[in-house]
Structures are given as C-alpha cells and as structure tokens.
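Many introductory courses stop at the sequence. We go one step further.
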Amino acid sequence: MFGFGKKDPAAKLKKQYQEILAQAQQRQRNGDIEGYSRLSQQAEEILKQIDAIEGSA
C-alpha cells in the first residue's frame, strides 16, 4: 500500500558504487592510474544504472 517493507532496488547499487569509488581513490593515491581509470569507468556505469532506476520510480 505505502511501500513499507519494499526494498530499494538502487540501495545495493549505491553501496557498490561507494565501494568502487573508495577503491579507485586508493588506486589513484598509489599511482595506479590504469586501475583508477578502470574502476572509475565501472563506477560511472553503476551510476547510470542508479539514475535509470531512480528515474523510473
């Protein structure tokens, strides 16, 4: 009725997005630019998925 108990489909993706950003930051600090770039790309793809889910809600 009001959506109580309904899981947020974007919550898991948001957590994954934050974890990947943290990993990317560590890679950048350690000088691993390729790893940073790869993880940043993954984070952007997840962010697009989050935007799509939240836009349709």
